[in-house]
Amino acid sequence: MDVEKLSGKTIEISDITAWNKNGQKLLVSKVRARDIVEDITAKVEEILKFEYEHNRIIIPFAMTATREDINFFKWDGKNLETIYTFPTHEVMSEYDSEFSKKRIFEYYLETLVEGWLRDLAYNWKTENPPKNQELTQIGFVEKLADAAQ
User: Fold this and answer.
1) Which of 82, 126, 130, 138 could form a cystine bridge with 91, CB 3.0-4.6 A?
2) Quick one: pLDDT at residue 55?
C-alpha cells in the first residue's frame, strides 16, 4: 500500500525504508514499475517533509527506483538534492540475470531493491555488491544497517 489516511489527509509512506546502526531512519524511497507518469521524486520529498514537520526527524537520504533508473538524493531538512543516478539494470542484473529481458512488476522490483540494500548492509550475496563503492563515497553504505518494505 502506498498511502495511509490520517485525519482526513492522505499521507505518502515509504515503499522501502532503511535504518542506520543506531536504529534511526536513514533512507526513504518510492519504487515504481508502472507505465504511469507520476512524479515520485515529489512523493519522496513529501515523506521527508512530513517526517521533519511532524516528528522533527531529518532523514538524510532518499531514493527513487523505476525499471529504468535509480536515483539517490540527499536531504538537509530543506533541500532535496540528487547526488547519484544510475541505470537500474546495472544493479538488478546481479540479483536476476533476466532483469532486462522480462516484464518487471512493482512488488518484484521492490523485493529486488530491498535485497540489494540488504546486500550492501550485510554482504549476504556478494562480497562487493553493485554500486557499493559509489554509495560508500556519498556516505550511505557505512551508515546502513538494515532495510525493509
Assistant:
1) 130
2) 92
